[in-house]
């Protein structure tokens, strides 16, 4: 098999018997060996193919279609906000990259460089963008002259490269990934502040309305924020199986730091020279990995209807002496009716696979609803619908097909969110003391603790929890704050607490 780092089976959890004849089924369960389960699900679900460069993955049409469905929503929403799309080059000259040394410092080991063309060394090596601040901002400086040039709101859909060294995982941590990066400049801080939250709300909607994943909106700590910016907001998700938080997307207010570095100045209405206020914001193909981790089960992927390329798969169930042609025609007619109503449906009419094999195959791929049509259904002018999320079976009269399928898809979407939220909420542990914190961390909890909000204290928490599993860190200070009674102490320092903050291990 191709693929340099295809995860090997063995170690950790028990290997389950794979159905030999068909090759269907997974060798690991989600609860027994989450890591192996995940690797297998993304490959067998046809989202990913492993590649012969570590940390790089082929995104197959099944994954890209999900990406495109999110992109269609987000792109339309930012256009309503007057953001324009653009495209800047992949390559960065070393001079510009160094310009913002301070912020790049910690990231430098992850920057990949082109040093040769053919056999000859380049005179000056060229970096591949890990993010595009240094690529774009010299031109912001050129394009922004007066207050009439503001706001400048640009976005690009592109790939970026970060040469990560720790444990690559498809979608979650890969060396090349797809994202959108928005970079905006305003005359006032107020406008920038407003946009940060507007974008964050779109990210919440991508997760909650499209991917059916509950997220928490909040602010990053000083230690965890983007060092080049003023403050960072994020949506944070949680993976119950591993007990890890995961940053879903970020929306930064950069303040005037980059404006200073890149001299992005303008003449304001009073004719004075002023500096712009900037934001940047991004979400990436990591979203797809979070979706797989949260909703997937021991039968494979589970796709929320709103992002699934295929919402309904129609499967004929002929018997030897049945009217096979009649069944096939009913399948085709069902697909046509659903398609006309704007539902993404297809029939699996392959004659070299049994209905049972097809059921497993489409379950592995996570299609939200399966429709089976057999002789009895044909006779009764009905179809049988089977939900991927809970296996529930319903007989639907063909007269009310569209109406009922729409309703079921809505119910599936809602149920996926409700179940995910219930599981996430069950993991939340409110702690007040260090002892409670350590216990909760050992139980893979999502910890909510009163905190003094001091950088040194967070460093101390990291140091005191360092170990094989990785240190605990702050995930975010949620905007929605529970009441903090007067006199509440910080769980880690004993100083007066300022905020409730989420803590845990994270991706
Ligand atoms: C890796 C190498 C070099 C993250 C890096 O979040 C530089 C960087 O600047 C780097 N990894 N970052 C921070 C990216 C900040 C910011 N960029 C625009 C975003 C949103 C989109």
UniProtKB/TrEMBL annotation:
Record keyword Aminoacyl-tRNA synthetase present: yes
Record's keyword terms, sorted: Aminoacyl-tRNA synthetase, ATP-binding, Ligase, Nucleotide-binding, Protein biosynthesis
Top-level EC class as recorded in UniProt: ligase
One GO BP: prolyl-tRNA aminoacylation
Ranges of residues in domain Aminoacyl-transfer RNA synthetases class-II family profile: 66-304
Molecular function in Gene Ontology: ATP binding; proline-tRNA ligase activity
InterPro entries attached to this UniProt entry: aa-tRNA-synt_IIb (IPR002314), aa-tRNA-synth_II (IPR006195), aa-tRNA-synth_II/BPL/LPL (IPR045864), Anticodon-bd (IPR004154), Anticodon-bd_dom_sf (IPR036621), Pro-tRNA-ligase_IIa (IPR002316), Pro-tRNA-ligase_IIa_arc-type (IPR004499), Pro-tRNA_ligase_II_C (IPR016061)
EC number: 6.1.1.15
Reaction it catalyzes: tRNA(Pro) + L-proline + ATP = L-prolyl-tRNA(Pro) + AMP + diphosphate
GO CC terms: aminoacyl-tRNA synthetase multienzyme complex; cytoplasm
NCBIfam families the UniProt entry points to: proS_fam_I (TIGR00408)
HAMAP family named in the record: Pro_tRNA_synth_type3
Descriptive protein name: proline--tRNA ligase
Gene: LOC111314022
């Amino acid at each position: 098999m191709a693929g340099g780092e295809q995860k090997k089976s063995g170690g950790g959890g028990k290997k389950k018997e794979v159905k030999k004849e068909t090759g269907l089924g997974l060798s690991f369960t989600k609860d027994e060996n989450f890591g192996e389960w995940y690797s297998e699900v993304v490959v067998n679900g046809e989202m990913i193919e492993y590649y012969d460069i570590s940390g790089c993955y082929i995104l197959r049409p099944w994954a890209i279609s999900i990406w495109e469905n999110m992109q269609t929503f987000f792109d339309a929403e930012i256009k309503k906000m007057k953001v324009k799309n653009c495209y800047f080059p992949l390559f960065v000259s070393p001079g510009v990259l160094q310009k913002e040394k301070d912020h790049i410092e910690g990231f430098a080991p992850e920057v990949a460089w082109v040093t040769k063309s053919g056999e000859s060394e380049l005179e000056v090596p060229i970096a591949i963008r890990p993010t595009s601040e240094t690529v774009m901002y010299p031109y912001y400086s050129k394009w922004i002259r007066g207050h009439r040039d503001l706001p400048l709101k640009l976005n690009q859909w592109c790939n970026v490269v970060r040469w990560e060294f720790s444990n690559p995982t498809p979608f979650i941590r890969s060396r090349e990934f797809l994202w959108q990066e928005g970079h905006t400049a305003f005359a006032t801080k107020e406008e920038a502040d407003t946009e940060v939250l507007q974008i964050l709300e779109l990210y919440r909607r991508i997760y909650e309305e499209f991917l059916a994943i509950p997220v928490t909106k909040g602010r990053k700590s000083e230690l965890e924020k983007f060092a080049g910016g003023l403050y960072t907001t994020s949506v944070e998700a949680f993976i119950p199986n591993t007990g890890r938080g995961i940053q879903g997307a970020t929306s930064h207010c950069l303040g005037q730091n980059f404006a200073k570095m890149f001299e992005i100045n303008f003449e304001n209405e009073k004719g004075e020279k002023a500096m712009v206020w900037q934001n940047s914001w991004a979400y990436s193909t990591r979203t797809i990995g979070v979706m797989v981790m949260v909703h997937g089960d021991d039968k494979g992927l589970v796709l929320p209807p709103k992002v699934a390329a295929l919402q309904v798969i129609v499967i004929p169930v002929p018997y030897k002496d049945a009217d096979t042609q009649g069944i096939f025609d009913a399948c085709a007619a069902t697909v046509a009716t659903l398609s006309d109503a704007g539902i993404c449906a297809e029939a699996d009419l392959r004659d070299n696979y049994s209905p049972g094999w097809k059921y497993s195959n489409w379950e592995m791929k996570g299609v939200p609803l399966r429709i089976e049509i057999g002789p009895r259904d044909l006779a009764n002018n009905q179809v049988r619908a089977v939900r991927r999320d809970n296996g529930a079976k319903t007989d639907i009269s063909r007269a009310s097909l569209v109406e009922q399928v729409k309703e079921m898809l809505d119910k599936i979407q809602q149920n996926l969110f409700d179940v995910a939220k219930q599981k996430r909420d069950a993991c939340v542990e409110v702690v007040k003391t260090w002892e409670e914190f350590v216990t909760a961390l050992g139980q893979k909890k999502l910890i909510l603790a009163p905190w003094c909000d001091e950088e040194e204290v967070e460093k101390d928490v990291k140091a005191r929890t360092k170990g094989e599993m990785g240190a605990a860190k702050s995930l975010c200070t949620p905007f929605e704050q529970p009441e903090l009674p007067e006199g509440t102490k910080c769980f880690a320092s004993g100083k007066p607490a300022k905020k409730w903050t989420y803590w845990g291990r994270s991706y």
